[in-house]
Structure formats: structure tokens, C-alpha cells
Specification:
Bound molecules: pyridoxal-5'-phosphate
Distance between the termini: 33 Å
Strand order of the largest sheet: 4-13-12-11-10-5-9-7
CATH architecture of the largest domain: 3-Layer(aba) Sandwich
CATH topology of the largest domain: Aspartate Aminotransferase, domain 2
CATH class of the largest domain: Alpha Beta
CATH superfamily of the largest domain: Type I PLP-dependent aspartate aminotransferase-like (Major domain)
Length: about 450
Amino acid sequence: MESVKSIETATTALATHPTGKLDISREKSAALYEKAKTYFPGGVNSPVRAFRSVYGTPLFIVKGDGCHIWDADGNKFIDFCCSWGPLILGHNNTQIREKVTETMQNGMSFGAPTALENELAELILSHNKYIEKLRFVSSGTEAVMSAIRLARGYTKRDKILKFEGCYHGHVDSLLVKAGSGLVTFGETSSAGVPKSFADETIVVPLNDLKAVKLAFEEFKDQIAAVIIEPVPANNGLLLQEKEFLQQLREICTVKEALLIFDEVISGFRLGFEGAAGYYQIQPDIITYGKIIGGGLPVGAYGSSAEIMSNISPEGAVYQAGTLSGNPVAMSAGIAQLSELAKPGFYIGLNQKTKKFTDEIEQYSEEKNYGMKVFRIGSIFWFAFTGLENIRRADEIDPKSMEKFKLFHRKLLNRGVYIGPSGYEVGFISSAHTENDLEKAKKAIFESLDFVFHQQTDASFTG
Ligand code: PLP
């Protein structure tokens, strides 16, 4: 009885959205969401999934295969979210599934070393000249948290410098946003983070070397590490110039602070060596997540053998994990990274993405729509800001998100799934075929037409 009422409430809510006729059916997803709200805060286990920034209720996914996903109502979508990045080979990849299934025949977890950890480490380290040793953890957040502790333990300093617009997981000391001055202590961006933690974090704008230098002057010999997403991809795609990243490298070397590249998104995405390899810059510590685990929960941090020797049990910096190096997760990572290590993998993927985004951008330009597609490798971002270049978070006009919201809804109606926030990037996998991308492009063109014409053509509701 209760669930029938829930369905009615949810369906009515959807039908009364202001922009046109009833969308794709979401009855079953809506009912599941109503139920989920009784179990989880906001009905979800990670906030952005709640569709708070877009129309309607979240879609509950029942299946994924290749570049497609299906929701509980039987709607099929071409997926550009790819589980927020990990699925670079697409959904339900055969090699990963078979390797994981084979491993599971022998049990799920031992809390003791297995050869699979060696195998994944060997695969990574033999193809990545930027790290000599690593430690597996179970998420990107854990990787960053541990990297920061390592930097503090190694340098014997406390402060961390981060950039406004970079996200590093829900680590206390990094849930901090810029204060009012150019170089200030950060202010917590989440309730529950003590002010004293935020006081250890300095936040400066991206692409602003002057602010970085000022911070090093003001907090002389106190900064343990500068942490950056070398490809900032959590607040739009704020591509930085190589020179800026190089200058960060230089200033960290001179000031004896560590440079941490948070490559949870860019790692194994821009190339096997991630952004470090792409820009040919040697950071001191690199963090990984997402792709490294082939869709299962794996993170890692890596550095030189010398710096890593500070981690327990070798050194004094404590870090541990019950499920770290879990054999099933290691297997998924091995299967996925083995494919990525094959010659030509990234060339094909990046070319395919470039063609796709170039054509969308060209369409938008010809029609004089204020939408630009930013891209690097197989990561892209639809920006409705009308700007040619965006390198800082504060350059994104929040009002541009209204257009994204409509775009998102129109895309879902046309069978294309992108992340439910205009600040999120999209990903292309090796499973997206030319044919899929052609179909998606058509849906994107039609949705753009709607977004940019709706004020003048009231009958245009599709
Ligand atoms: N660092 C970056 C750059 C990320 O994009 C994310 C997550 O999106 C994280 C860290 C946190 O990773 P996780 O969500 O696996 O904890």
C-alpha cells in the first residue's frame, strides 16, 4: 500500500515539472527512491546521485553492458558517466568479469598477502616511471588521506596547500574552501570539520602562481605539501597550462614541500602514466582510484622508494586497511589495466573522443550557441558559460547551470545518460562504438536546439 502511494506521489511530481510533456517513464525508479529515502539520508549513499541539481528523481540502474545502462523502468541509455570514471572498458567487460569470477572461486578475502597484489603492482610499476613503490587502499579518499599523512610525516610540517575547485574526496582537512583574502586559511565546506583542521589548509585559486608564492612566504617552512588535481575535473574541467604545473614543481622543490598529484580521475585515463606522463612532470606522491580497480573499490598512493619507506611497518607513518589489496578487487584491476597497457589503447580512445567532441563543438559554434566542450584525453565537459577558456572555479557562472539542467533532462529523454550535475565531466570508454557516438551526437544536437530555442518556441517540448 505504502509503495503504491509513493509511486503516485513521485509520478505526479515528475509530471508537474515546468518544461513540457511527461518525460520517459520513471515510475519504478521513483518508487525505489521513495523506499531508499527511508533507509539513507537523501535516499542515496553518495550525494550527487540524488539528482538534486537536475530534474526528476534518480534513475535506479539494473544493468550495464558495453556503453549502455538500463534503468528499473526498462529505459536504455548510452552512458557517459561510466560510474564516474572507473569503467574505461565499459560495463560488464568480459575479461574483468572472467578474472573476478575465477578469483572468487577461491574465496573473497584473507587479510593476508596474495600474489594478486604483486601482480597488479608489477603491472603498474613496470609501466609507470613516476612511482617506485605503492600502497593499495580501498578508495580515492583513502589514498589522498594517506598521501597527506605521508607528506606531513616525511616533511615534519603540518600545512597543506590546495586549490579552489579541486576535489580530493571527503578528507576532513580538504573539505575546505577559500576564505576571503588571496592567501588565507580555508573555511570548512562541510559541517563536522573542526576549524582547527581547516586552519592547517591554505586554499588558493587555480592558475595563480602569485598566490602560491605568497602562501609560501606567509607560511614559511610550514607547508608540507601542495596538492592538486593536475587535470581538475570535479568543478567543470579546469584545464591548467603545463607551465603552471611545472612552476608548482619548481616551487615545491625549492621550498622543500612535496608536490602531490591527485590522479584519482586522470590516473590511467590520460594514458597509463596519467597526467604525470601526459605533462612529463615528476610529482613526489601520486594518488589513484577509480580506473585502477576496474569497477571495484581500489585506491593507491605511490612515490619514490625513499619516501614510501616512511609508511608503516617500514616507517613511522601509520596506515592500514582490513580489505586493502582485496584479491577480488585486485583481479578486476589486473584485468582492466592489462588491456590499458596494450599498445595503441589510448591513441584509439583519445582520437574517438576528439572526433566526438569536435563535432559537437562545431555544431554549437555554427548555431551560435553559447556552449563549449572542453576535452582532454577521453574526459569532456559541456560548459554553458559561453567562455573560450576556463581555468578557475570562480569563472563558472552558476546561472549557466540552468541550461545544463534542461540539457540533462532532454538527453535522458533521448537515451543519453550523463552525470546529474553541470559541474561533472563525462567519460568515453573503449566500448563506445562509432555508431553509439553517432546516435549520442544526434541526441545532443537536438537537446542543444531545445535548450537554446525554448524561450522562442513554446511548442518545442520533446
Ligand atoms: N580525488 C579526486 C580527484 C576525485 O575525483 C575523487 C572522487 O571523485 C576522490 C579523490 C575521492 O575518491 P573516492 O570517491 O573513491 O573516495
